[in-house]
Amino acid sequence: MSNKFNTDLDRCRANYQPLTPLRFLDRAMDVYPNRVAAIHRGKSYTWREYGERCRRLGRALIGAGVQRGDTVAIMATNVLAMLEAQFGVPYSGAVINCINSRLDAAAVAFILEHSEAKIFFVDRQLADVAREAIAQSGRDMMVIDISEPEAGSAAPVGKIEYEDFLATAKASVELRYPEDEWDAIALNYTSGTTGNPKGVVYHHRGAYLNALGQVMTGDMVGRKTVYLWTLPLFHCNGWCYAWGLAAIGATSVCLRKVAAEEIYAAIAAYGVTHFCAAPTVLSFLIAGKPANWVAPKHPIEIICAGASPPVAVMQQTIELGFKVLHVYGMTELHGVVTLCEEQEEWGGLDLPTRCQRYGRQGVRTVVTDEMMVADPATYQPIPADGETMGEVLFRGNLGMKGYLKNPKATKDAFAGDWYHSGDLAVLHPDGYMEIKDRAKDIIISGGENVSSLEVEDVLYTHPDVLNVAVVAVPDAKWGEVPCAVVELKPDRVGSLTEEQVIAYCRQRLAGFKTPRHVIFEPIVRTATGKLQKFKLRDHVAQVIANKAKAA
Question: Which of 85, 266, 502, 508 is deepest in the core (most CB within 10 A)?
Answer without folding.
Answer: 85
